[in-house]
Design a protein that fits this description.
386 residues, globular, Na+/H+ antiporter like fold, mainly alpha, 0% strand
C-alpha cells in the first residue's frame, strides 16, 4: 500500500507543481493543494499513515539541510541585526493580538496567552522552497528570513516552557533555557572542529558515496540533537547544512543530497501537509476559522514586515519577508498538540487551529510571489529542473 501511495504522490505532485508554475505560482502551492485532493477530504487515495509521516519528516529535514548548504555565511553575518528585528517583531504583534483575541473569545487567561503563543510560531520550510524557486534563497532577504526563523523558534519555545510550567506541566524554565544554550554551544563546536574532521575521514573510504553518507549522518544527528534539546529538528538540520557549507565538500554534498531529496522525500513532505488536513466536523466553526486565519496571516505579515523595515529594507521587500514568515507549518502543529495534552486548548479549538495552520501554509507561496515580484531567471531554471 505504501509503495502505491508513494507512486501516486510523486506523479500527482510533479504534475500539480508544473501546472502551478504555468499559472504563475510557485510549484509548491500545487503540491500542497494536490495533497488535499489525494487525501481523505476529497479522493481518499492517500491516507495519512505513520510511515508516510516519517518519510515526510525526513523530507522537511533534508529541505532545511539544503537551505543551510546554500546559505552564504558572510551574508548571514551581515543580516544578523535584520533577522533579530524580524524575528522579535514577528512574535510581539501576533502574540499580543492573539492574546487579545483569546480574551475576546472569553477563553481563560492562560489559554489566551497560549493562543497568542501559538500564533507567534513560524515554520519557513515552505518559504524555503518558494525562495528557491524565485532565486532568492541566497539573497539578503532570504538569509534574513532564515535567521529570523531560528530566533523565532528559540524565543517561542522558551516562552512555551514558561507557559507550560504555569499550566501544571513538569517544566523547569531554567533547565529548558540551559538545554538550548548547551545545544547551540555544542552545535557550533561540532561545526567548527568535528564536521571537517569527519568529512576528511570519510573521503578516502573505499565505498560508494562516502561523502554523501557522511553529510546525511551529520544532518540527521544535528536534527536529532536539536529535538532532544527542545529545538525544532529543522533548525538542527539547517545548522548542519551551514557547517558543511564551510568545508570543501559543500558542492558535492549539495548536488547529491538535492537529487535524493527532490526525487522522493521533499514531494512527500509537501503533499502530506494537504493529506493530513481533516475538515470533518468544522462546519460549525467557519466564522472562527476565517477570523483566526485572517488574524494569523495579518499579524505575522505586518509584524515581521515592520521589523524588516526598521532594519533598512524597502516596504515591498519588507512585506515579502513578512509573507515568508506567515506559514506556521509543523512547528505550530507540535505546539498545538502540546497545548491539547496540557488542556490549554480544547478539542474543538485544536481542530480549528489545525485548519488555521493549514491555511497559513497554503497562502504563503502566492503571497511571497506577489510581494517579491516576478520570478528570476534562476528561479525559472530551478522550476524546470524539479
Amino acid at each position: 500500500m505504501l509503495i502505491f501511495q508513494l507512486a501516486i504522490i510523486l506523479l500527482a505532485s510533479k504534475i500539480a507543481g508544473d501546472l502551478s508554475v504555468k499559472l504563475g505560482q510557485p510549484s509548491v502551492l500545487g503540491k500542497l493543494l494536490i495533497g488535499i485532493v489525494l487525501g481523505p477530504t476529497v479522493l481518499g487515495v492517500v491516507s495519512n499513515t505513520e510511515m508516510l509521516q516519517e518519510i515526510s519528516q525526513i523530507g522537511v529535514v533534508l529541505l532545511m539541510f539544503i537551505a543551510g548548504l546554500e546559505t552564504d555565511t558572510e551574508e548571514f553575518k551581515r543580516t544578523g541585526k535584520a533577522s533579530a528585528y524580524v524575528g522579535i517583531s514577528g512574535i510581539i504583534v501576533p502574540f499580543s493580538l492573539g492574546y487579545l483575541a483569546g480574551i475576546w473569545l472569553e477563553l481563560p487567561q492562560l489559554q489566551s496567552v497560549f493562543l497568542g503563543l501559538l500564533l507567534s510560531a513560524t515554520s519557513v520550510s515552505i518559504s524555503v522552497q518558494a525562495l528557491k524557486e524565485m532565486g532568492k534563497l541566497k539573497s539578503r532577504e532570504g538569509t534574513t528570513i532564515l535567521g529570523a526563523a531560528v530566533i523565532d523558534d528559540i524565543l517561542v519555545i522558551i516562552v512555551l516552557a514558561f507557559v507550560m510550567s504555569f499550566a501544571g506541566g513538569d517544566v523547569n524554565l531554567g533547565v529548558v533555557v540551559l538545554k538550548k544554550v548547551i545545544f547551540f554551544v555544542v552545535a557550533i563546536f561540532i561545526a567548527w572542529k568535528i564536521v571537517p574532521w569527519l568529512l576528511n575521514k570519510f573521503a578516502p573510504l573505499r565505498v560508494t558515496e562516502a561523502i554523501i553518507s557522511a553529510g546525511l549522518i551529520i544532518c540527521f544527528m544535528y536534527a536529532y540533537l536539536a529535538e532532544v534539546a527542545g529545538v525544532a529538528a529543522i533548525i538542527g538540520a539547517y545548522i548542519a547544512g551551514i557547517a558543511i557549507s564551510l568545508t570543501k565538500y559543500k558542492h558535492e554534498v549539495f548536488e547529491k543530497v538535492e537529487t535524493i531529496s527532490y526525487s522522493i522525500f521533499v514531494p512527500v513532505f509537501f503533499t502530506s501537509i494537504g493529506v493530513s488536513a481533516e475538515f470533518i466536523g468544522i462546519g460549525n466553526h467557519i466564522g472562527l476559522i476565517v477570523g483566526l486565519s485572517m488574524l494569523a496571516i495579518l499579524t505575522k505579515l505586518i509584524g515581521s514586515a515592520i521589523g524588516a523595515r526598521l532594519s533598512g529594507f524597502g516596504w515591498r521587500n519588507s512585506l515579502g519577508i513578512g509573507a515568508a514568515m506567515v506559514s506556521r507549518g509543523e512547528v505550530a502543529l507540535i505546539i498545538a498538540s502540546m497545548g491539547l495534552e496540557a488542556n490549554l486548548l480544547s478539542q474543538e479549538m485544536f481542530a480549528v487551529m489545525v485548519v488555521v495552520v493549514l491555511i497559513t501554509t497554503l497562502v504563503t507561496p502566492p503571497m511571497m510571489k506577489f510581494m517579491f515580484g516576478k520570478t528570476s531567471i534562476k528561479g525559472q531554471e530551478l522550476q524546470r529542473k524539479e
